[in-house]
User: Fold this.
Amino acid sequence: MKGFKLLWHIVLPQLRPATSIAMIVSVVGALRSFDLVSVMTDGGPYQSSTVLAYYMYDQTFGAFRIGYGAAIASCLFFLMDICIVIFLIRSLPRGGAEAMFPIPIETASPARRRVFYATVWICLFVWLLPIIAIAITSIRSVQDLNAGNYWGWPTEFSAVANYTRVFTSSPMLRFLFNSMVITLVSCVGALALSAMAGFALSRYRFRGSTLLLALFIAGNFVPFQMLMIPVRDIAIHVIPVYDTIWALVIFHIAFQTGFCTLFMRNFIAELPGELIEAARVEGVSEIQIFFHVILPLVRPALAALFVLVFTFVWNDYFWSLVLVQSDSARPVTAGLQALRETWTNTWHLISAGSLLAAVPPVLVFFLMQRQFIAGLTFGATKG
Assistant:
């Protein structure tokens, strides 16, 4: 009972700002829910799993009720605004309480350490269980699946045949190539723009800088589904890039730059101002300061952002449905959905394709793990 009172009256009030921010992110994510509904249920049965974002997409592009879809987008926008305002008001700190930190596990009793480690392994297993199931399914034979052996150990292994068929019987290589081009170009473009914008917002004072930063922050909370009608119109009528790789590249750069700018602005603001002032005293131009002083110092942040943006863009499914139709421009996420409609009952091939699609982001993370952690933890031990 003592521990419960400690949690309820001391720990939770101290965590109010952090939990409020977590609730904001969770609400934004919930209102943006689209991929799972589209892939797993298509809103059924009888619209029992239809969410607002999917309903808006279905009414706009399925029933061609564009005005109705725009009205739903407006409702979603106002609903998001109300939620954000409420949670921001509740997240304001009340009092000057100091931050609390958990007790290091090394100082806990042996019994608590055993419970902790057991819980960690259980959570890890539960988290990895879907991936393990997909990996096992990808090496099953079609006879296993026809016999109803979905969860048991495979009676026959067909890994080579399954993965070979994925490449020979589908445009999977084309899908992977499209995703790689879209993702790499989008990452480079978003990082280049955000580095320059972050430098300007953190080191220069000009009229409207605060408003501009606020727009970058607010843009991260806007449900992107509400933008699908104007974005599609722009891609068709203003910039003729619809159903091309460049449609996804341009709009991914535009959407990712806001988050990256906020990240880079905060990172560059933590750099010692004396370095920049010393360079100016030596007669170094602002462009040279950016390229020769700022960029070498923000490499950890750029590496961390590269991993995050690579994952976001590679895993995107919504915009590939809105802006692309043909296999020549489809990324791997939309390609897998198209294959699912073609290979109705060949779950072993769908699983094999899914694992292949998941490999590049995992490789990028492990190859840049050290830089990723350094970028995210910069300044965490200062002061």
Remarks:
- DSSP finds 19 helices and no strands in the chain.
